[in-house]
Specification:
Radius of gyration: 30 Å
Largest sheet: 4 strands, mixed
Number of helices: 3
Number of strands: 11
Strand order of the largest sheet: 7-11-8-9
Length: 173
């Protein structure tokens, strides 16, 4: 009698678990890549899934539209149960701002790698008469740029460099 009661209780417990945990019910996770958050939310709601935006910041990816999804977990094509959270990472609106290093009075050979390593691009290089071959001035969009200024990563910085001719001019004219 005790063995039969144990078997019946186990059978009922397994049936209850089977029905409450949605065993063998699977939903295929759609690809959310490059989709705006609103569109992704609607798509997941249709499939009884939930969207959760990760708060950690991602690096800007120019291959994706601004504020679109660049990463998701679980991966597209994965099988999940209903009401599962799908974690996504959004593409920021642009590159973050970084500080322009002080390369004035350094040689061009020293300044260029430092600017590039910081995440900037080297634009036009202008030579002016000067006794050294050092960087005399930094420019951004035609305006003089002071070291320590915050600019978007990948901004193009122009250099004004001495030509090493031995002549000196005053740049503050």
């Amino acid at each position: 009698m005790a063995v039969a009661l144990t078997v019946i209780l186990c059978f009922l417990a397994l049936e209850w678990l089977d029905s409450t945990t949605n065993h063998d019910q699977r939903i295929v996770v759609p690809s959310l890549s490059k989709k705006p958050i609103d569109e992704a939310q609607a798509l997941l709601e249709e499939k009884d899934l939930r969207l959760k935006v990760r708060e950690d910041s991602a690096s800007f990816n120019p291959d994706y539209p601004k504020y679109s999804i660049i990463e998701q977990n679980p991966a597209p094509g994965s099988m999940v149960k209903e009401n599962r959270k799908i974690y996504v990472t959004l593409n920021p609106s642009g590159y973050r701002k970084i500080e322009v290093p002080n390369v004035v009075q350094q040689t061009r050979r020293q300044a260029e790698p430092l600017l590039v390593a910081s995440g900037f691009k080297i634009g036009k290089i202008t030579y002016q008469p000067n006794m050294s071959d050092q960087v005399l001035e930094l420019r951004y969009k035609g305006k003089t740029l002071k070291p320590g200024t915050m600019l978007m990563k990948t901004s193009t910085i122009d250099l004004v460099v001495g030509d090493g001719s031995g002549r000196r001019i005053n740049l503050n004219q």
